[in-house]
Amino acid sequence: MTARHGLPALWLVAACAAPSWNEIAPGAPPRQGTVAVVGAMSLIPPVERQSPGSSPVVMVGAARDRVYGVFTVDLRRPFGPDLWEDHSAHYSVYLPLEGDFFIEIPRGHSRLYLRGIVVMTNRGWTGVETPAQIRIGPDDEVVYIGHLYVQRTRPQWIEVRREEQAARRAADQLNHGALISRPWTVRPASPLELAPSNDKGLQPVPM
Question: How far is residue 68's CA from residue 55's CA, in Å, rounded to a whole number?
């Protein structure tokens, strides 16, 4: 986990860079040329955006109730500010801080890595690594990748659980009928872990 410090007494924060990809609007189908990716994420323990004893921060725009999700096509660069601040080195999308997400990505990606999220708190920008591999088939319309549970304090771990029915209920509650009516490919993300010091980067954890 990485944080930026030295905030003034009150920060008014807006999103400074438009994400590469979009959340799917309630009631709307994925746009032509895209595939829907459905999943959920829970951080353990949750990130406190407003911690006691720290200066307040006011989030505006999309930053108010979303986090910045970071995706890459490979694992060559480690997760951290050098990656997420270089917008040419990653793809991005806004995600809810907790729970189900419904996003669309351009077709043509057969393998992606959800590297982590970046959260604005009243202590600064905080990055949480959430390494998982996502696989997408050429004929997929909606890919369900599971619920990612991320233990962000030591001992750190990531687990992916198949909770498709809960995701379908969430889609129904959030008016994603256009997704429910399409065929879902259930392909849980493969969690990754930090390899021992062997310069091989992140390695898949057996499912």
Answer: 22
| Sequence-ordered list of residues with C-beta below 8 angstroms from that of 169, at least 6 positions apart, any chain | none
Instruction: Please give the backbone phi and psi of residue 63, each rounded to the nearest 5 degrees, phi first.
Output: -70, -15
Range of the domain at 144: 30-195
E-strand stretches of 157-201? 157-161, 184-186, 190-194
Angstrom distance (rounded) from CA 151 to CA 13 = 27
pTM of the model: 0.84
Beta bridge partners of 3: 126
Domains in the chain, number? 1
Name the burial class of residue 97, with classes exposed (0-12), middle (13-18) and buried (19+) by CB atoms within 10 angstroms of its CB.
middle
Contact 200, 74 (CB under 8 A): no
- Residue 15 inside a domain? The answer is no
Cβ pair 185, 143 in contact under 8 A: yes
Cα separation, 143 vs 184, whole angstroms = 6
Angle, CA of 11, 151 and 84, to the nearest 5°: 45
Domain assignment present for residue 62? The answer is: yes
Q: Which residues of the chain have pLDDT under 70?
A: 1-17, 54, 56-64, 194-207
